[in-house]
Structures are given as C-alpha cells and as structure tokens.
Design brief:
The structure holds two protein chains of two kinds.
Chain A lengths: L29 H13 L4 H27 L14 H12 L2 H11 L9 H22 L25 H34 L3 H10 L7 H34 L11 H27 L8 H31 L3 H13 L3 H13 L7 H5 L1 H28 L14 H24 L5 H6 L8 H13 L1
Chain B lengths: L19 H23 L2 H34 L6 H12 L1 H8 L5 H7 L2 H50 L3 H24 L3 H16 L1 H5 L6 H32 L2 H29 L12 H26 L9 H32 L2 H10 L4 H21 L8 H23 L3 H5 L10 H24 L12 H5 L4
Classes of the chains: A mainly alpha, B mainly alpha.
Amino acid sequence: MPTGTTDQGVHPSEAPGVAREPLVLNNRSFSWITERICGIVENRQPLGWWFLFIPSAILAGCLIFTLVYLVSTGVGIWGMNHPVAWGWDIVNFVFWIGIGHAGTLISAILFLTRQKWRTSVNRASEAMTLFAVMCAGIFPGFHVGRFWMVWFLAPVPNSNAIWQNFKSPLLWDVFAVSTYFTVSVIFWYIGLIPDLATLRDRARTKFRKLAYGFFALGWRGGNRQWQHYEMAYLLLAALSTPLVLSVHSVVSFDFATSVVPGWHTTIFPPYFVAGAIFGGFAMVLTLMLPCRLIYGLQDLITMKHIDNMAKIILLTGTIVGYAYIMELFISYYSANKYETDAFHLRILSGPYTWAYYCMFFCNVIAPQVFWFEKARKNLWIVFIIANFVNAGMWFERFVIIPTSVSVDFLPGQWGLYSPTWVEKLMFAGSFGLFMSLFLIFLRFLPVIAIAEVKGVLPQADPHYHDWKKLREGRRSK
Amino acid sequence: MAGLKNADHYAQGEKFSPGLLKWVLLMGGAGAAVLFFIIASASGEQFRGAMAYSWLFALIYFLSLTVGGIFWTLLHHASNSGWGIVIRRLMENLGSVVIVIFVLALPLLAPGFRDALWEWFPERAKIKAEAVEHAEHELAARRAQLTENLKAAETSLLAMEKENAAALAKATEGEKVYLNAELAAAKGRLETAKAALGSDEEIKEQLKYEHFKHSNVLLYKKKGYLNEAFWHFRFFFYGAALFGIIYFLRHWSIKSDETGDPKFFRRMRRAACGFLPLFATAWTFLVFDWLMALDYAWFSTMWGVYLFAGAALNSMAFLIILVTLLRRAGYLKEVITMEHYHLMGKLLLAFTIFWAYIAFSQFFLIWYANITEETKFYLTRNTDFWNPYSIAFLVIGHFFVPFTILLIQGFKKKPTVICAIAGWTLLMHFFDVYWIIIPERGPSLTHGESLIIPGAVWTDLLAWISVAGLFGFGLMHFLGKGSLYPCRDPRLDESLNVVN
C-alpha cells in the first residue's frame, strides 16, 4: 500500500488525480436534470438575460443599418484600397468561421473519441457554431459588392453564360462553408429531437405543445427510435468530423495558394484548424461561464469541464505558437528575400508590428498560465484569458490578411489600410447579431442536451453495480 | 460480459522471455551491419555516398517507429487516458529503442557519409578553403585599396575644411547648418576608412565573408543555423531529448509496477505534459536537419508535421502487430481484448486520414503556388518513374486502400484483418520514407546526371535489414525487462474493462 499523505488508506484506483471526477456533481438525479434545464425555457428569464439582450438587439440593428447603407452606396464606404483589397470584412469572416469550429468539434470529434464531458457543453457550442457561421457568411456575401448577385457563386444553369471558376479556392470556400453549415444544422437538430419531445411533454400551453411537438417529429422515446437515433447520430458525427478540418483548411487555401509572402506557407491548413478550435473554445468559455452562473448550472457544467476546456486552449494555443515559430524560422531558413522581408516587417519594422505582438501575446503567451491548476480553477482568470484569446484570434487574421498585402512586391503600390466607421460598426453589429441569436436560443431551446447528460450519469452505466461492488469489496478489505 | 475484471488480480504482471530470438536478431542485424560497412569501406566515393542514403533511409524508418512510441506514451498520459494502460508498456518499450537507433546514427557523423548526404557540409568546407586562399591572394590589393580610400578621405576632408572655413565666414545660419553637416559627414567617412584599414587579420576576415556571400548566398544567409558546430550540438541534443523523455517515463512506469504508488501516475502525467513541447521541438528540427537539409535550398513549414504524422500512424500499426504476435505467443491474452483492437484500429484510421491530410496539403499548396524554390522537391518526385511510384504507393497505397478498409467497423475487431492492414501500412511507410530520401540521391551524387545509382537499391535493403535486426534486438531487450503491462497502474481497472 502506498504511504503518501493523501493516498493513505485509499485504494490506488481511488487516489486523488487517479479517480475520475464525476461529470454531474452532487449526485443529481434524472428528474433534477430535466427540471433544471427545462426550467430555463419554461420560466421567466432572469433580469440578466434582458440586460444582455437589449443592447445585443440594438447592435444587431446597427448591423442591419450598415448593411442597408452599404448596399445603397457601394463598398467604397469601406476603407479598402488598392493593395489591401481584403480588409476587416475578410478578417471578420475568418474570425467568425474560426469560432464556428468548436461546436462541431465538441459534438462530433469528442463524440467519436468518447469524451463524455462533451455532453454538458455540446448543445450550446453547436448553437454558437451556427450563429457564428451566420455572422461569418454576411461579410464575404456583402464583400462581393452587389449582394443581389451573390447567387452567381452557385453553379446553377443560368442565361448569363456565367461559369464559376472551379480553380479558385474562393469558390471552394463557398461550398465548404455551406456544406459545413448544412451538416451542422442537421446534426444539431437531430440531437435536439429527444429534448424537444421532453419540452413538448411538459408544455402547459397549447401553442407550446404544438410548436415543440411539430419539431419533435413525433418522438416517443421507444427502443427502436433510440436505436435509429443513435445510429444517425454516429453517422452524422463521422460525416461532420472531416468537415471540421475541411472548412478551415479551405479557408486557409484562400491565402496559402497565393504567392504572397505571409499568405503562402505549407503549414497553413493544420495551423488554421488548430487556431479555429482554439478560438472556438475561447468563445464557448466566454458564453458558458456567465451562462452557468445566471442559470445555476454549476452541477452540470462543472469545474472539470472548465478545466478540460482550459487545457484544450493551452494545447491549441501552443500548436498555434508552434506554427508562428515555424513561419518565422522558415522565413529565416528559406533565405528568400521576399519571405524574409515580409516577416521582418511583421515583427520588427513594419507599420503593423504592434498587431503582431498583440496577437503573439494573446494567443501564445497568455494561455500559458493554464499550465497551472490554480489558474484553471479561478473563473476570473479563465474568463479573462478566454477573452484574450478571442481578441488574439481576431488579431491573427488581421496580421495575416491586410498586413501581408499592404507591402508587397511593387513598392509603387504600397499602401496602408485602416477601417472606416462603417466597418467598425459592422463588426460590432455582428457581435450584436451573434449574441441576440444566442440569447434567443437560450430562451427557447434546452441549453444542455438533457438526454445525453443523463447518459453519462454513473447510474446510467450498465456496469454501475459491478463497479460499485468492486469498490466496496476493496474498501471492506 | 458478466462481472468486471479486478485489477488486483492482475497485479503480478506478465514477464516476457525473448529467449533465443533476441540473440538471433542481434546476430542477424549486426552481421548485416558489418557486411554493410565492409561494402561501404570497400566502395568508391560515389557508391559509399549512395550507401549513406541507404543507411539514413533505414534509420529514419525505424526512428519514426520509436518516436511514434514516445508520442503515444506522451499522449496517453497528457490526455489523461485510461483505455490503453495495458498497451502503454509496449509503447514505452518501443519508444525506448530510440537509443539503439541513435547509436546506429553515429556513422552519419563520419565525413564520408555526412558529406554525401548533406551537401552543405562539403560546400561550406570548400568555400571556407577557397575563402582563405582568396583572402591571402587579395590581401595586398585590398590593403592598397583601403589605404588609398583613407588617403582620399583625408584629402577630401582637408580640402573641405579649407573651403568651408572660407564659406562659413559669410554663411547665413541655415547655410552653416548645412556646411557643418557636410563636414561631419566627411569626418565620418574618414573614420570609416580608418576603421576599415584594420590589421591583416581583420581585412582577411572581411574578405572571407565577402567571398562566402558571393560564392553561395543561400549558405551565407543560413550560416547561423547550417554550420558544423551547431549541427553537431543539435545531433546530440535530439538523441538526449528523445531518449531522456522516454527514459524517465518508462522508469517511473516500471517503478510503479513494484509499489503501485499513485504518485508515479501523477508524476508521469505532469511530466508528459511538460515533455510535449520538448518532443515537438526535437522531432521537428531533427527532420529539418536530417531530411529537409538533404537539399539545403528547399523548405516547407509543414515538414515537421508531415514526418510526425507518418511516425504516429506507423508506430500504431507496429503496436497492433506487436500485440498480436505477443498474444499468439501466449502473452497478454487476459488483459488485451478485442475492444483494445477496435480502439487501436480507430486510431489507425484517424492517423491514416491525418497523414493524407498533411501530405496532400503540403503537396497541394506547393503545386498550386508554383514557386520555383519550393517546387523542386516535387519536381524530382513527380517526374520519370517517381511519378507512378508516388501515385501508386503514396496516393493509393498509403491512403485509399487502408482508409477504405478501416472504415468498416467489424474489421477493426478482427486481429487478422487489422494486422494485415497494419502490415500494409508499414510497407507503405517503407515506400514513403524511401520516397522522401532516395530521389535526392542520384541527382546529388551525380550532379544531376542520373536519377539513380545502379545497385544501390540492394544496399538500401541491406541497411534496412541491419537496422531492423538491431531494432528488434533493442525491442526484445526492453520487452524482456519488467512486466509486459503496467501491472499495478492505478487505472488498470479502467483499461481492463474498457468498452467503446
């Protein structure tokens, strides 16, 4: 028997650091979980919800205003100029698309790798994914200039003799993002069905019963239904997994297939995917930390969940740091004049050097505090670091996109870029839209997957009694 | 499954006795290696150079398997996993063989091998020798020129002082500023000229640098990284870092076999997280130094990830085969179940996809952007017979075949099927590593005259057999020490009863 102070008298399998922490605290029962989660939808929203929703809705209104102004005036009201044809609009697009990665990663990849802790956060992060992708879609959609012509991107028969350029990664992006969005919606919706049925069965008004009943597709929770459901869920998870990788890989192709130093480097696809997961998890934490407090979900979204997400942020942040360092190293090692100059401008003497250091600090240095358990257990620190990451990932796209082209091969066309108030307001407005949609989601749909959380309770394990017997047998020895 | 397996009943572990096999592998491997080096020393310079590539090929093949073993050990701890405890010792043992590979890598330090592989060594040596000669030769002329420059600077300053003295007297304030600045500049030029006219040694040093820069600007710019001293330091750093990581993890793991103290478990987890950045650094720069620098002009930021993907995939394939062989020999029958096979099969599938994703992205971005200094790597490999080779082995063999088969769930639970795929993957890894290294050989050694060195394919196989034998010996050695699975690991329960 071990003789350590904390391990004294405990079987090694139950020692601290070895025993698995429970995913639902305080031995909550099945009915408590249903009550607590459905309660959010069924009861009046707390004051905090309104405090967040009203300004969000106003901001979303600003987005609509700027879009109307843009369409009625033209993209000239943005600050883009000759060398920098991609400014904040594309930065924001990549930023939001990146955020839209954590949801499907949590729901698909963590499902395939049997990470049970995903159940407490997957629903909300999938919703976040959808809203983020919606926000992302706005920017390139309006960037094309004549928004009403955006359907030209789709390869449908038309009488204008338009043939899409299939050689262009920009077109692949249209397909990648729309496929991702479609599959994510289906995946999210399939996951919602059993919970919608729960809400239907608890509904006290006729309208609620009808509305939830319509979307629950006649779910009765029978054995055969569950069997089909589980299989559909598994297949969709398998289908979504390559999509998580493909979307941001294709986004990275938008830049990396070019010959612009700072855009073209081979590590871009996995680096973008890691960055997207990084930024996505930061946004999940930003949303879920207040959410669990406002709705009292501490027993479901436990410190263990937050700890895991903080560790993923540390890991992916360090992978992103690896990519930054590879880029810097190869820009030196390549001895290529343009490559070296581009990175020299980025880190030493360029007009946007400050942005590079903001990015590096927020994405690589700041998350390193998550090496310490104390930091991961302090919600303020977790929240602050998550927001550093949100900012850092925006800066990363800013560093890559406009700064690389502002100073390129022809000195005659160098030019700096700064956004106009319209771009700034649009970006703020996209946050408003995102937050409004998320708050509406909280209001009407179960924020945690009720059926799935129940599945990871210890008493749901078919071997629950065997494990109990094993442990009790050991203790009595 | 009725009831659960109680880890307490498995605490005695299983001892593996390699028996005669260990010595057969040693004798076979060592015999082949001796033959290899006899041939190498008896061959002419070009063929010996070709054999250096053979040796590097064999080393990288087995090094990637061992490095994969280290990776899986690290990952298992860092991700707080439980499923693979019963396989973890095999990962640790596989990883430990890295020391054998590093000992076998020592011949790469011999100039006959080293210079044939990495042209920058002889190139630098040549330039350095020329530079010394150049400096000797040019010294007198340069000194004369510098003296003349100094004189000219002095004369011009004197003249300017005289002229300006007159001008200053009647100058306005603005003109004065200008005239004084002019004077200061002339003084500065004089100082520079004085500084340039240093001792003979200083002038020679300057001449050498200029010569280096003019002879090979790439190597000149890369001299901070590609230089002999730093390269040798890195060579030993990689060995120490990689072996150090797995040495400690295996050491604690074996210690915990004796007492079952959970403190080792916690220590391994903590250490593994800390080791991950070190591991990534060591492996990335190792493959930069040994493989990317086979052509010092070429570069790719993805290179480290690409080699990592192959290493992780194939060491998993190797582990699957190792588990099966051990089970056939009567070991681990109780502890490793079809569930473990299924899990390993899923990881094999995941990494088959990951390898293809990385390999494709690297190829695709270079192909699409079509920048000369990057495309040269693929130009060699996508022309002549290397083109059908790439398509057959890398595109179809390495990806489509295992990917399609591994998608089927049932196959991952059948040891014979999953072993066949694992064996296939290992064969494709052979072709992948071959494809990375060997296309450089012909053009490098014959200065672009020929794509291949006739007969060298046999030394490739001989090298592979030598390293395989000694790798096998190392593996048997480590397997024979300690239990085959961490028998008192505090999470053994979880691994024994894993269901997925």
